[in-house]
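Tutorial handout. Part one gives the primary structure; part two gives the three-dimensional structure as tokens.
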Amino acid sequence: MCYQLVYIVFDFAAEATLKDSAVMNRCVGQTAARIGWGIEGESEPDAAWSSALKKGGRSVYVNFSADPDSYGLTVSVITNQWRRLYLSAYRAGMQNADYRKILVTAAESIYASLAPDYGYGLISLDTQYLEPPAEGDYRPKTVHDYNFFSPRLSAKFSSLSAVPAVRFVAFGNGGTLLELSPDPLGDRKAYAANYIAASGILGIPTIQQGC
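Part two.
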């Protein structure tokens, strides 16, 4: 993990989801299909996660790419923390609107497939420490560029629709995505007011715009 990467992080209430190979195989296959990219080294997308598991090691990961010369995406789990999933993208690629759209589409696919409790980003793992996934009936502490709220969290915020998001996605399970900037690493000043308003409306004390 290095500074050239940025992340959207998904936290889960229990380990069962990420330890279920069938669920993860389906998630990876559906995500590849939705973004229209291939999985590196795999001819059978619906078995890609099982293949990655067999390699062992400190992490399990699957890489998506449009072609060998393009920026890709990676889904990964660190095997000492089965309640957290990482979706990583290349920082340099985030200058491209199409690449940003692919990242968000992949994140939405992961959310719809796995139903995490909370998702947030962009995060830089080289410049900030992440606390372990929270437990119980907690509330988020920070407003991010992308905020994925489970039904439990969405129910805590009665005024989600009042947040001046650039995109508001209501998922079929009752969860929500608030996207606060179309270009989180670009012109931050133009969208800073969205983050400030979201913090005030939702009662979330801290703001992180970009990373």
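Part three, for discussion. The CA atoms of residues 100 and 155 lie 28 Å apart. The first helix runs from residue 16 to 19.
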